[in-house]
Amino acid sequence: MNQVAAAQARPWDRPFWKPVRRKEAVFFFLVLIHVLAIIGIILFPLPSLKVLGLAALFVAFGGLGTTVCYHRMLAHKTLKTNRFIEQMLIFWAVFNASGHPASWVAYHRQHHSTTDTPNDISSPKQGGFWWAHLRWLYQTPPADRQRWAPEVNRGIYKIWGYAETPVIILSIFIGLILGLGWMGFFWLGAIRLVYTLHMQCFVNSLTHLDHVAEGDSSKNVWWLGPFQLTAWGENWHKNHHTHAGSARLGLRWWQPDIGWYFIWTLEAMGLAHSVKRPRAS
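The structure assignment produced for this chain is given below.
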């Protein structure tokens, strides 16, 4: 009994290949896209410009869905948009394999509430780099949506509980659906999904590797931003933890924040409102 309690208290001590109950599908998805990505790179190491351009475009749309909608709008309530824009951004976030909005928001709020403590689901200070980067996705129980994200667990958001799996299938097979052959299948599907997965996971792992810091270990990682394309801004993670109530993550003129530029444009066009800016320190 004590061993069971210890395993629950220290989930990073589980074998890395063993998902928790109700996370088997997540583990299968992660293995599947990595295997397909390796095969795709072997078979098609140099994609055509058309395929590469479309892959980058899908990464960009998915990045905006995750950083603007899931992170800044839904998790931290730092802006509001009309329902159409919100649902379109959610679609691209799901297409990007970021999961159900309520699940993403619940995990993120729990992380902020328990940052770098043993209760933090994705802290490298507790479980190490690979735990924070990937393993927690399939080795922690599903987030308590009703506790951490009740407003995103009802109403119009419920549709994504039914739509998530079909959208993921669409995301994997979009290259074939668009008639781009097996090169399109691999590059627009698994290779793109693996890339976006790791660029997002670096926010949990790489930007929390300040082991010298006491308490919150978040830090800014300037060179990560360009690789994140439209999610460039998430790399200013120390800024975010310091000003979690701000829609802007790049606080200095020399800190690019593509999500913020998108929000600013929406606001200027009258399509976003109640935009929260960082308080003067």
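Interim note for the steering committee: Strands lie at 80-81, 272-273. The first helix runs from residue 2 to 9.
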